[in-house]
């Protein structure tokens, strides 16, 4: 159409697939980046499998070519999404050049169910994508390209279930249906670790949600009760401290009163002729005849004073 059509380097288009269980997914490759014209894209490379995704690119007229690793292999193509505008065309050529009549001319009249799987007879496939300057976000395609080996050539890697094609073992359990029958992504037999990881993630999320709900419930119910219990216990402790301090003050006041009364009794005894050496309350003080010694302790001295006043 008057515009040069570069042959794109496959190594920069479709990297090797990796299992999802190892933490990596197959990279998606977009047509708008593949159709940029530079020197490296003119050298096509070999590929086991990959995905091409078109997202309503405007004013494209480009060609990309893929080659298998072995002459015994050929390509299988099938669509996960196919919804082209009526002025857009995707041409599929069985070979390394876009010269012979195309194997398929896909446009708005085609659906992925109608097209199904396309197979090349050679170990090359060439795609030519032409678009105009109008479209919607819904226009585009998602194309899975896989290098397959026919059953008659034997298989040392992975054998698809329905057609028994042999594909690279690196394409299994990568989240992409390369066999077009789902057998390379069989989570029950071939990829149990994928199902286990998904179940583990779901269980962990459920446990975390339940724990968060329980914590919220506890905070709203027993948390308030615990707060009031703590306040009550603090009040009891404070009341006990006040009571102890008051008792100590009362005891000290009572002891001071008892000492004052004892001093008065001793002075009265001295004025009645009971003088002698030593202090009034000392061990060498002279007692009046007929007066018994006061009982030990301040309370005893006070009791003795009361007895003398009564006499």
From TrEMBL:
<keyword id="KW-0472">Membrane</keyword>
<protein>
    <recommendedName>
        <fullName>CUB domain-containing protein</fullName>
    </recommendedName>
</protein>
<keyword id="KW-1015">Disulfide bond</keyword>
<feature type="transmembrane region" description="Helical">
    <location>
        <begin position="228"/>
        <end position="251"/>
    </location>
</feature>
<keyword id="KW-1133">Transmembrane helix</keyword>
<dbReference type="Pfam" id="PF00057">
    <property type="entry name" value="Ldl_recept_a"/>
</dbReference>
<dbReference type="InterPro" id="IPR000859">
    <property type="entry name" value="CUB_dom"/>
</dbReference>
<dbReference type="InterPro" id="IPR035914">
    <property type="entry name" value="Sperma_CUB_dom_sf"/>
</dbReference>
<keyword id="KW-0812">Transmembrane</keyword>
<dbReference type="InterPro" id="IPR002172">
    <property type="entry name" value="LDrepeatLR_classA_rpt"/>
</dbReference>
<feature type="region of interest" description="Disordered">
    <location>
        <begin position="268"/>
        <end position="311"/>
    </location>
</feature>
<dbReference type="InterPro" id="IPR023415">
    <property type="entry name" value="LDLR_class-A_CS"/>
</dbReference>
<dbReference type="InterPro" id="IPR036055">
    <property type="entry name" value="LDL_receptor-like_sf"/>
</dbReference>
<dbReference type="InterPro" id="IPR042333">
    <property type="entry name" value="LRAD2/Mig-13-like"/>
</dbReference>
<feature type="compositionally biased region" description="Gly residues">
    <location>
        <begin position="272"/>
        <end position="284"/>
    </location>
</feature>
